[in-house]
Amino acid sequence: MYKYPHGKNFSSTNLNFGSGTEICYLGSEIPVSASSLKVAVYGLSTEGYKIASHISKKGIPVSIIDDSSGMAITLKPDIAKTYSSVTSFIQDETLLDFEPFDVAINNASFIFFTPRIRKSWPDAKNHIGSKFQDVIKHVNKDSSIINTVPAGFGANNENITLIEHRTGLNVGKNIFYHYMPISSISPTVFDAIIGTRSEVNPNLESMLSELYPDTLKVVDIESAEYLYCIRILRHYGLMSPIFEICKFADSSFQSQMMESQSFDDLYLDDLVSGLFDLNTILSSLTGISPLTLLLKGNIATVENYIKYLTEQIKIILKKYELKASKTKAIISWTFDPNEMRGDRLEIISRLESRLKDYVGDVERHDSMFDFYSSEKKIIVVSCSKIDFERINKNNPNSEIIIVKATPLLGRSSILS
Predict the structure, then answer these.
(1) Of 9, 120, 166, 227, which residue is the least packed, with the fewest Cβ within 10 Å?
(2) For the chain, which domains are there?
(3) What is the DSSP-derived secondary structure letter of residue 131?
């Protein structure tokens, strides 16, 4: 049983998408027959491909739009089943069918907004806005736009105003807008939420049902923004204090603590996972308030940790009497290059730049690398749990120094 913003309740049913079957209708959106249903996903990101692939496997026509080239790719069920990730999908473009992206959007009943964002704040806001305008130029009456990009307070109402201004249509009556923020933090942490000004079309619920096996929480737009902000800050509220306080801990701290394992499982990768979201929320606020200070504090924790990490590398160089010219630093950080957010790419660039102040030879690696490729002394900075496990398991050289990018690095986290 779903409860909607206007207080109406109704049960959601599984729908049959068989050819020519008229889909039952609940709510204020216009019903669409299965034979005419079409979906467009704007953004060749991992998140976008996951949605597009899932819907395509249901037999529904899907076009996924490469927002860098402006071309739409027809995603057929056999292709979706063949390519499990967007990376493998991109590598075999010769087998794919293309069409202009404006045609794909114009023909779609549902348009998911899942762009690849590679700008830093504050430039990211204009970048996202530009891509969103590319979409709404071509939407048709009675279509539904589903925005999956995390938004700050009031940002969705700005989008709605823009849609109405550009299309001349009324959101909630003859065109529909939903806010469904996709988190980069573990999906087990966040329940799926969708904010709307109208009841959600059951076609949309059915398409997403297996992606979100638990109840899809449907609320009004403002509540969705508030809930998502609370979830992000709650996540950082548990993690940021650990990274901040551990910088002051002496060598006896870990031996006396009871929660060392949980601290040791937190990495720089975890700290960066919601950075985009924090900046998004902060950008929607003005003035100084406890909330802005809270957001700024969590963002500062990331920058403070990078500074702390590089200072520890400097201490290691001094401890082992290593010359910068005869040392190589390797940043080992495995992450998805096609994810919607670009925070990890930005942070790894910052870390690389800082390390070059102390070590002339700095390399990035996002997979296994050859430990014998250099005659220099090697310091490996492991930025995620999976990277440390791979390196620790396959390290053939006891002379390599491995630094775990955890809250207690530089203490027992350093192996040699």
Answers:
(1) 9
(2) 2-228 (3.40.50.720), 247-415 (3.40.50)
(3) H
